[in-house]
Amino acid sequence: MTTSRRVILPALLLIALAALAACNFPGPATTPDLGATSAAQTLSAQLTSIAQPQATTPAPPTAIPVTPTTAPSPTTAATFTATATTIPCDRAGQILDITYPDGSDLAPGAGFVKTWRIRNTGSCTWTSAYALVFDHGDSMGSPPSIQLTTGTVAPGQTVDVSVSLTAPAAAGTYRGYYRLRNSSGVIFGTDPGANTAFWVEIEVVPATTTVNLTALAAESGYVRSDGSVSSPRNTGDTPTNLASQAFQSFDISGIPAGSTITSVTFNLTGFDTLGNPFTDLGCLYMYHHDYGALDAGDFVAGSPAGALIRICEAGGLGSAVADNDFIGALQSKVGSSRFQIRFQFTDTAVTADGEADMVRFPTVVMTVRYYH
């Protein structure tokens, strides 16, 4: 097989060369054999392909995209346009309380005159045709409107405006709102929108009554640990080591039933001491004690709880202010005829030093403040 291929290829080459040479020499004009010519051209192309290496067309270079750089635009400065502020014709401002500032205490039914100082912050002049008008809230007897009587009030000037009112009968906080009205009947108020109302505010508190109640001598005195009873109002211990407790009775029938107690103060001035009661016996305590008629059974031994007042030095005996516990105890007796108390030393009832350590009370005065 190898030998025949070597013979055939040269022969074919010779035939092809001969055919090409024949085409280049002149000869008689004949009609060309199209089939032969096509075959020769095909063969020539095949031989050329075999004899020469195929040329490789290089791939075109890949284009690298380039983004054009745009120069930054110069910064434009912000531009502000001034806007003219229009001042309304009628507007009030800078309201001051000349009388009865907010939260003022008044008794039920008390009459009062509320006065404001108001600045004209508008662009129009106020005249006597302008008026203060009640807007809403608690009227407290206010008239619907009150004409301004101070002549003209130019822009920037102030005027004092007053209204007569009456505090309500019931306790509580009350507030009434007001605005102004111009000569055309247009109602206006305060800054900034000229439509805000201003007000009067009061606190109605019940009228209080103060009474000074003196302890009843016939129902007051002392009871000692041995059961003895006597009229002096002494508390402490005796030279014979007996504990002594003092009792005070007050007539409270003058305080009407249904009254509310607001404060209680005891005036203990005029007392004197024997020995060293506060050094040797400790603190002196006051208790609520409904004893009725004083007798031996009213003596209370030990250190009971529930003391309403505690006094730990002689300086505290000048006066004593009762706290809420004591006020509550007295409140529970309002409507009855008596309120009774007991003084005793409870830290140490007695000392065995053979000496009297005693506080001796004069007539005790209880000051009570209440409302009804």
Describe the secondary-structure layout:
Blueprint: H1 2-24, H2 34-51, E1 92-97, E2 104-106, E3 111-120, E4 131-137, E5 145-147, E6 158-166, E7 172-181, E8 187-188, E9 198-204, E10 208-214, E11 221-224, E12 229-230, E13 234-237, E14 243-251, E15 260-267, E16 272-274, H3 277-280, E17 284-288, E18 309-311, E19 319-321, H4 324-331, E20 338-345, E21 357-360, E22 365-371
Parallel strand pairs: 2-9
Antiparallel strand pairs: 1-3, 3-6, 4-5, 4-7, 7-8, 7-9, 10-22, 11-12, 11-14, 13-14, 13-21, 14-20, 15-19, 15-22, 16-21, 17-18, 17-20
Architecture overview:
The structure is a single chain. By secondary structure, the chain is α+β, with helices and mostly antiparallel strands. It has two domains: 92-206, Immunoglobulins (Immunoglobulin-like, Sandwich), CATH 2.60.40; 210-371, Jelly Rolls (Sandwich). It contains four helices and 22 strands. The chain has helices at 2-24, 34-51, 277-280, 324-331, and strands spanning 92-97, 104-106, 111-120, 131-137, 145-147, 158-166, 172-181, 187-188, 198-204, 208-214, 221-224, 229-230, 234-237, 243-251, 260-267, 272-274, 284-288, 309-311, 319-321, 338-345, 357-360, 365-371. Strands 11, 12, 13, 14, 16, 17, 18, 20 and 21 form a nine-stranded antiparallel beta sheet that branches. Strand 13 and strand 14 (243-251) form a beta hairpin. The longest helix is centred in the first third of the chain and has 23 residues, at 2-24. It is rod-shaped. The chain starts with a helix and ends with a strand. The model is unreliable at 1-78 (pLDDT under 50).
